[in-house]
Design a protein that fits this description.
It is a single chain. The chain has helices spanning 8-11, 23-26, 37-40, 61-72, 85-93, 101-109, 118-127, 143-149, 154-166, 186-199, 202-218, 227-232, 247-250, 257-271, 279-290, 298-316, 369-378, 391-408, 425-437, 536-546, 562-570, 575-582, 589-599, 601-617; strands at residues 140-142, 170-174, 177-180, 276-278, 320-325, 332-337, 350-356, 415-417, 454-455, 484-485, 503-508, 517-523. By secondary structure, it is an alpha+beta fold. The chain is globular. β11 (503-508) and β12 (517-523) form a beta hairpin. The longest helix is centred in the middle third of the chain and has 19 residues, at 298-316. It has 24 helices and twelve strands. The protein binds a DNA duplex through residues 2, 4-7, 76, 112-114, 116-118, 143, 153-156, 158-159, 162, 175-176, 251, 253-254, 256-258, 298, 301-302, 304-306, 308-309, 312, 333, 361-362, 365-366.
Length: 629
DNA sequence: CCGTCCCGCCATTCG
DNA sequence: CGAATGGCGGGACGG
């Protein structure tokens, strides 16, 4: 029943006697002992423990942990509720009756801010599903139900879903319906994101930004904001992908934010040396990438706000944790990566380079019913698949995809994907095991870095020396151009590349095989030059240069930044855009804008306007302190 | 005072 | 056209 979703949503209850997972929300059950119960599973009653059973889903130790932790922290959690008898009974017996409409009403009214936080909400949400879904059972997620059961407005659920979706932990099936994948694909997704991050040279950008901050610190000439990236950002060529012609796609204002932002944010972690990213840096980079110029300030603020949202759910996933970096100007909020470090080697992930002039802007658009069917068939990946592959099914799916694509994508867009898959299994499993081992906080013996004095608050340091399984080959994406697939693999998901980042990694859930494909979609410029082709070589080169630039590198001036020069010139991932960035990248903005303009009139105007506004602010021409040359 | 970030208006996009 | 999504930023909460 779709009942009125909005506002009232929160109000209504889930009358349903279904398998509601009542306690989850409360879990609380009286604050029992503080945290430590983690291990102890608190013998004393602690209904908390109970939760795992209830939902009927296989609970992973982690999920419980999560719940406990989240629950424990806020001392505030005294939840006035204790007082109200209703609640109490609610805790234990849950479902039974409990329509105490009134009771609940009152309850939700006074929840401390923390109790209403997105992070906690996310925890509740995650608690309802196993980290590694059992393909056998249905992993459907109905937004309405979730919203109701968690007593929150739909809007909030969207926030969560969006970032989960960006990590491929869920995928949209249709309106109002998602499928839960849990962490099954996480490793692969992360691997893909890492790669994408490398290709975007986020590592360099971050270093440069940091350096810049440092410099600035001395000579407090405070203004000229994030020009930095422009300076180096060749790959910037920000401009919306939509070809002028394709009006529909064009409007893609949409596929902006959250999902994309989330992926980019994660990328930053995966490419930064100490896996710490400050909000400030992240915001700057993400902004810079988006629109070339624009009045910062408010833009920046907003970006930060969004990042907090994303960070909150990532925290719930235990992929990151809040910390503080005591860089230059005092402490700044930052986040530390606590997710898996040993991602599946590139081989596990097939990379496909797609030069699509346009893809449906709605990546995860709801599939046709037929699609759904096939999808479901495949949806079994779970943890251990590997055997039984149904080629026929795969083909079917492919063909479907194909059709789909034909409809809304440019004719000329061959997809190249490196074949190679092979092993992967081991690495993947290893990753999974590790994650499950929990005790997360994996600390890679990071290179000591002077500047980032990260004071990891309560971090449980624990260097993970083990993980021998780490793929033999480091992170070198040996992307050998290979097979040509006429169509997108089943379940392909793709994002319309954000305005500027030329590549957006996308994982294609490819259940049956157990590996997925990462897609790097290049948006097509006005008209992709046919001859131009994604030079696989560049990829290789790029990644080579990167790999952990050891400690010292941090100190290097931007100009000397490791891969910097090398990548600089032809780093632009998008071949089609190549020409744009290929040129000596003379001062950035102006020329860039122009280009953008040409490719997209409308957009051009906008940019133009912005530029104008902006222009006044900063000196029109900044001495391009170009690294290269 | 300020770092966080909830809340929900309202523009978009979907069906 | 109404419902589903999801930008976005005012301004409240908590330290």
């Amino acid at each position: 029943p779709q009942t009125s979703p909005n506002k009232s949503a929160a109000a209504n209850e889930k009358k349903t006697g279904v398998f509601v997972e009542p306690q989850t929300p409360g879990k609380t059950s009286g604050k029992s002992a503080p945290l430590e119960n983690l291990k102890i599973m608190g013998p004393l009653t602690t209904p908390t423990k109970g939760p795992d059973a209830p939902t009927g889903e296989p609970w992973t130790p982690t999920s419980n942990l999560k719940m406990l932790i989240s629950a424990a922290s806020p001392e505030i959690r005294n939840r006035e509720k204790e007082r109200s008898a209703d609640n109490i009974k609610a805790d234990e017996t849950e479902c039974s009756s409990q329509e105490p409409e009134l009771g609940e009403e009152s309850e939700k009214l006074h929840l401390s801010r923390k109790e209403k936080s997105l992070g906690l909400l996310c925890h509740k949400f995650l608690a309802r599903y196993p980290d590694y879904p059992n393909p056998a059972i249905n992993n459907d997620i109905c937004l309405d139900d979730v919203a109701t059961e968690l007593s929150v407005e739909r809007r909030r659920i969207y926030d969560i879903m969006n970032v989960l979706e960006s990590l491929h932990m869920v995928s949209r099936l249709a309106k109002n319906r998602y499928t839960w994948h849990g962490r099954a694909k996480l490793a692969q997704t992360l691997a893909a994101l890492r790669r994408a991050g490398e290709e975007n040279r986020y590592g360099q950008q971050m270093l440069q930004l940091k350096q810049k901050n440092l410099d600035q610190e001395f000579e407090l000439d405070g203004e000229e904001k994030e020009n930095e990236e422009e300076a180096e950002g060749q790959k910037e060529l920000s401009f919306i992908s939509e070809t002028a012609g394709d009006a529909k796609t064009a409007g893609s204002r949409k596929d902006k934010s959250l999902r994309v932002m989330s992926q980019k944010f994660v990328m930053l972690f995966l490419v930064s040396s100490p896996r710490v990213v400050s909000l400030e840096i992240a915001a700057k980079i993400l902004i810079g990438e988006d629109q070339v110029v624009d009045q910062d300030k408010s833009k920046f603020k907003t970006k930060i706000r969004r990042l907090y949202d994303i960070a909150n759910v990532l925290s719930s996933l235990e992929l990151i944790k809040k910390v503080h970096v005591t860089e230059d100007r005092g402490r700044k909020p930052a986040f530390k990566w606590t997710g898996p470090e040993d991602l599946p080697s590139p081989q596990d992930v097939e990379i496909a380079t797609v030069t699509a002039s346009s893809l449906s802007s709605r990546p995860l658009e709801s599939r046709s019913s037929l699609d759904n069917c096939t999808k479901n068939l495949f949806c079994s990946p779970g943890t251990k698949r590997g055997f039984t592959r149904h080629h026929s099914l795969v083909k079917l799916a492919k063909s479907i995809q194909d059709d789909r694509r034909k409809i809304n994508s440019a004719p000329t867009s061959p997809i190249k994907m490196t074949s190679e898959a092979v092993s992967g299994g081991l690495a993947h499993l290893a990753a999974i095991c590790k994650m499950q081992l929990d005790k997360q906080t994996v600390n890679i013996p990071q290179t000591p870095n002077p500047e980032d004095a990260v004071d990891v608050c309560e971090d449980t340091l624990f260097t993970s020396a083990g993980a021998s399984t780490a793929a033999p080959r480091e992170s070198r994406p040996a992307c050998s151009p290979g097979v040509h697939f006429p169509v997108l693999p089943a379940g392909a998901v793709s994002y319309l590349p954000s305005p500027c980042s030329s590549v957006i990694p996308v994982l294609l859930p490819q259940p049956q095989v157990g590996r997925s494909y990462a897609l790097y979609v290049h948006h097509a410029p006005a008209r992709p030059h046919p001859s131009l082709r994604p030079p696989p070589t560049s990829l290789v080169v790029r990644s080579m240069t990167f790999e952990s630039p050891g400690g010292p590198s941090h100190k290097v001036s931007p100009a000397a930044a490791p891969a910097g020069q090398a990548a600089q010139g032809h780093d632009c991932a998008s071949p089609s855009l190549k020409r744009a960035c290929a040129e000596p990248a003379p001062e950035g903005s102006p020329s860039k804008i122009k280009r953008a303009e040409s490719s997209s009139p409308k957009l051009g105007e906008i940019l133009q306007a912005r530029l104008k506004a902006r222009r006044g602010a900063l000196k029109s021409s900044r001495p391009s302190s170009r690294a290269l040359h």
